Amino acid sequence: MRMPSSVFGVGRYLVAFTLVAGSLLLMSAPKKTGFTVHDKAYYADANVVNFVRPGFTITIVSAKIATDGTISVDYKLADPKGLPLDLTGVTTPGTVSVSFVAAYIPKGQTQYVAYTTRSQTSPITKATAIQAGADSGGTTQTVAVGEYIYTFKQKAVPPAGTYDPTATHRIGMYGSRNLTEFDLGTDRDSAFFDFVPAGGTPAPRDVIRTDSCNKCHDALVFHGGTRQGLELCIMCHTPQTVDPDTGNTVDMKVMAHKIHMGSSLPSVQAGKPYQIIGNAQNVSDWSTVVLPSDARRCQFCHESTTGAKQADAWIKNPNRDACGACHDNVNFATGLNHVNLPQVDDKQCTQCHIPKGELEFDASIMGAHAIPTQSETAPGINLDIAKVDNGVAGKAPTVTFTIRDNNKNAISMADMTGGSNRLALVMAGPTSDYGYTSFGSDVVTPGYVSENPVPTAKCSADGTCTYTFTHAIPAKATGTYSIGIEGRRGITLLAGTTQQQTSEYGAINKVVNFSVDGSPVQARRKVVDIAKCNGCHSSLSLHGENRNQIEMCVLCHNPSENDLAYKSVATVPADKTSPPQSVNFALMIHKIHTGEKMATDFGTTYTIVGFGGSHNDFTDVRYPAMGPTGAVADTAKCYMCHVNTSEANFPIGKNPVADTQGLLNPAPATTSACTACHQTRSALSHAVSQYDPKFGESCDVCHTTGAAFDVDQVHAGK
Q1: Are both 298-370 and 382-556 of the same fold?
Q2: What is the DSSP string of 73-131?
Q3: pTM here?
Q4: Homologous superfamily, domain 382-556
Q5: pLDDT digit string (tens) for 393-420?
């Protein structure tokens, strides 16, 4: 699903300007329990909501398989408060459509095999493949309004062998309730039911749960939004299902690994795209996917915290299909890229690939997936700022800080000098809005930057150091200022072995606030949180392991900052001559996450020239949050990053953003932030029309929380 090109559509634009600003604030919808601000129903007329009772839940009561293989399932349909729903939509609003899948796990195996299948012939290759899917042609019996029994047309006849009533079986359901006639969109739900027909405790596949997927995807839905949750997906995405157009399996353990590896797949890097051709010959090309976290961090998806009973399968039971999905340049039959050792089955995988060996980067599973920048052998860097002296307007502050390793041993300044080692202090202010008083950072030890010698800090034996800035606080400064500290060290891993490699590791940033004029200390506003970032990025660290906390990032990524300093050594000729690119935090993050939609929807790009003149083009970023129909890149889900509904707390009155590559320079703060996603001339024109040089922006009149077109309402799903 694509976002509207602008939330300031023509119809809304005309309505908004025919209403008095004061009345707009009074039009906020009554708050309805059971719905969040992200649901359309939250903003609907109360009478409509009370009549329709939007929402949709599926509950499977029971399932059974008769001795002749006839499969039946008893299920209930209801709204979120339990009111039964009429399947036909006659006695309750909204027609309901449901589908059913039946599968089992053969004895001695770990994956489902679907009873419900179909034959699919490719118009490209003319090949025919059997694919798992939903049953069709079954019958429905009404028990009561809201409760039904569906009898499958397909009987429990395995593709090979005979029906085993002692095996674990799963019935999957997915469905939708169409409420579009009430302007309430379409509600969707899915359910599954595990059972053993002969009686006993089922042992379902339980490797990864949907909660792990939703850290990035927010709501894992596919195929028009009807299939929800991994527990349902693994019933059809089994080894038995193949895409006849490409010949690629859609077995979940293979497909998911390949999709998430995307552009890093050896086969893709060798020039072969990774594609799946689906319904109506729609091509899904995953060759440009860049995983937000490190692909070697397998436990980011395979996590036991969700309750998945087989979460450790990846480390205890390696197999050729799963491992070969990422390492797809390995030929297990010939031994190519497998230390010349053919592997004819999975029985001996655990002989070499034990869970964890003695050293990192060995053949063990943990060793093979070790991340150099997070090596367990690194002694660590722990920084803290104890106090700031002389932190007053017109003076150069002196900072007292500590630098120690994980064992609380002092790290000398000599150990932070040379090579890739670095320690730096950054000062910015005021916290009311950083920027336009740019007096840079002090690199405490040489390295990374510095054309001139830089004075070093004075440190005691216990790791306590003092440093006096060479930059003074501006003489007319008022309010609260901030100082942040960052540092990293180089490291040689497995020295003297054939696996020797160099890397680096960094410290967690610390930021301290202090008053420069005696007024109360006031921290900068909190808009996003690093925990939200790491929900998808796992461990976000940038600029060579130097910066990893939002409070540190915003010190430099302020309204006046751009990439001009690096353009003279740009690696791409056009980058040398292009105007400076703004790296203000709100503009930059919004544009980066809009990613590929910039080019497809708006015809624009976003490129930053970085350290060493590097060319950083974010036009191919594929934002993973999913819309209600299953399309990715739903950037309307502001809450994925923002905290405390800060997306509606507009930065009105903050410093304008210097944006020499934009259509408006400088751009008012709110205009810059919002049009970084809504990158159309009409959206920008609307925003500019709501700005006055004397009184500033009026975005809050229509778009703040509770207003007629508040941000959450415009971005609400369904």
Answers
A1: no
A2: EEEEEE-TT--B--TTSSSSSSEEEEEEEEEEE-TT--S-EES-EEEEE-TTT--EEEE
A3: 0.90
A4: Macroglobulin (MG2) domain (2.60.40.1930)
A5: 999 999 999 999 999 999 998 899 888 8
